[in-house]
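Journal club side-thread
Mid-discussion, someone asked how the predicted structure for our own chain would compare to the paper's figures. Pasting it here so we can look after the session.
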Amino acid sequence: MSASVNPLQSEDIEEDSASLQFPKEFENAETLLISEVYMLLEHRKSQNESAEEEQELSEVFMKTLNYTERFSKFKNRETIAATRSLLQQKKLHKFELASIANLCPENADEAKALIPSLDGRFEDEELQQVLDDIQTKRSFQY
């Protein structure tokens, strides 16, 4: 009996977000915040509504729109841009950047529990300052 060999197995790297190991397909992919996805979907919906021949939006589209509206942390482009800029200055992996912005943890311990790759890379005080800055930006949204 011969053992079957998976030709992809030798090249595959095991995915592990805690150590920031992702498949090759994600190397050049950009991350979007849930708030950004909501704005894109809302824009698409308004385009559809103003079109001469309005098309019915799919159930998946509407469910995704509702989900992103519910979990969107930022209400306008300025706040999204300011938050993204703040996080990009901190030498975060794009996965960490999106995770922090999407989850908005309240403190460094919560951030490290939700995003294990942060542990050991940032001092609690530095991470807490970033989280506080994000909360401040969120509180001044209109």
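Post-session note: The first helix runs from residue 34 to 50.
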